[in-house]
Design a protein that fits this description.
Layout: H1 3-29, E1 39-45, H2 51-60, E2 75-82, E3 89-91, E4 103-105, H3 111-146
Antiparallel strand pairs: 1-2, 3-4
Helix pairs in contact: 1-3
């Protein structure tokens, strides 16, 4: 894998984990919003790295027996899905969002879970930022050696 591919993978991961962090911060911001449904970010690999996918890629290269195929790798943010769990029903008859019986549905966001997920997203972002930084320093050293 070359330096440009490493930068490309790091850039994809920075974008994906940045979007992931955005989803978690929106959830935290709406923890007390009635009828708000928690969003769960969806991340997917850009390559098929399953055993079946690797075997299919290896059969194309008959003479490369015993070597793994070249994978570009990376992660991509594919939006978010709604959490199917329901929030607690609260009796507030004068509330504008109340149903016919006077109940509103509280948000289904658990702030502790969201904070933990946000911290994980932040750490993943920081790790990929370090990858880009290390790759950049490797490229600078290669240029210095080439002079």
């Amino acid at each position: 894998m070359g330096i440009l591919e490493s930068m490309n993978i790091g850039g994809k991961a920075l974008r994906a984990h940045g979007y992931r962090l955005d989803v978690h911060t929106k959830n935290i911001a709406n923890v007390d919003t009635p009828n708000y449904i928690r969003k769960i970010p969806v991340l997917n690999s850009t390559d098929d790295v399953s055993f079946h996918g690797l075997m299919n890629a290896m059969k194309e290269d008959v003479f490369g027996v015993g070597t793994l195929p070249y994978l570009t790798g990376g992660v991509v943010f594919n939006g978010s899905v709604e959490d199917p769990t329901l929030g607690e029903k609260i009796y507030k008859p004068g509330h504008p969002d109340a149903d016919a019986e006077g109940y509103i549905r509280a948000s289904n966001v658990n702030p502790m879970v969201e904070m933990a997920d946000a911290i994980l997203a932040q750490r993943a972002y920081e790790a990929n930022l370090a990858l880009v930084s290390i790759t950049k320093s490797m490229a600078q050293k290669a240029i210095e050696i080439g002079r």
